[in-house]
Specification:
This protein has 193 residues and is an alpha/beta fold. The chain has ten helices and eight strands. The chain has helices at 2-7, 26-40, 56-60, 78-86, 88-92, 116-119, 123-131, 151-157, 162-165, 174-188; strands at 15-21, 44-49, 64-72, 75-76, 96-101, 136-140, 143-144, 169-170. It binds flavin mononucleotide. Residues 22-28, 70-74, 101-104, 120, 142-144, 149, 153, 156-157, 166 line the site of flavin mononucleotide. Pfam families: Flavodoxin_5.
């Protein structure tokens, strides 16, 4: 028995913070699905709204970060950007995955045959590529319900041609989201030696 006990090594849980910025909940839903998949893989996960980010002492205890934002007019939401800039030195020392929830509609390519997801690179990501060196950045299709939009967003949607680019509906691709989360889990959960 003693020798058996001696051979059980203490395995520390891997703690992941999933931080997201979401105006209407679509990105929050993606963050929660990622978190659920990571938890299934045995990781200790907590989802934070970037508007109420983890405190510095909580950040210090996190092993890996998944950070995502909805995209509006080509940009991440400010709360997500602020979180990344505030904790940049810590993020640089940890594995970080970034995601964006943006494009709406079902076609994978536009009229010029450009891959819509690959072509959606929020302005901030170019900067974060060098400042936090993420393991990866993934763009997911998003969702909008026109009835819940703010007056400003409704007005933008009334610009000529805008409603076709911002169609109503939920285009989130859950199998794609889950597959990405499993990729993250695989790289964080190392098989026992
Ligand atoms: C006014 C407006 C502007 C948008 N601009 C973009 C954009 O530039 N690029 C993009 O990929 N998606 C854009 N979207 C789509 C949103 O990013 C998408 O609906 C997202 O999933 C919303 O997430 P949220 O509910 O978490 O805020 C826009 C949506 C609206 C209503």
């Amino acid at each position: 028995m003693d020798s058996f006990v001696r051979h059980i090594r203490k395995v520390e849980p891997v703690r992941v913070a999933v931080v997201c910025a979401s105006h209407y909940g679509a990105t929050r839903g993606i963050a929660e699905r990622i978190a659920a998949e990571l938890a299934l893989a045995g990781l200790t996960v907590r989802v934070y709204d970037a508007a109420e980010p983890p405190h510095a002492e909580d950040v210090a205890g996190v092993d890996a970060f998944v950070i995502g934002s909805a995209v509006y007019m080509g940009h991440w939401l400010r709360d997500a950007t602020t979180f990344v800039r505030r904790y940049q030195p810590t993020l640089l020392e940890h594995p970080v995955w970034l995601f964006s929830s943006g494009p709406l509609g079902t076609p994978a390519t536009d009229a010029e045959a450009t891959d819509i997801l690959a072509d959606t690179v929020p302005a901030e990501i170019i900067d974060f590529d060098s400042t936090v060196r993420p393991v990866g950045h993934r763009v997911f299709f998003g969702a909008i319900d026109p009835d819940s939009l703010s007056l400003a967003h409704r007005t933008i949607r009334r610009f000529p041609g805008a409603a076709e680019k911002i169609p109503a509906g939920d285009f989130r691709d859950w199998p794609q989201v889950e597959a990405w989360a499993r990729e993250i889990a695989r790289s964080l959960v190392k098989p026992a030696a």
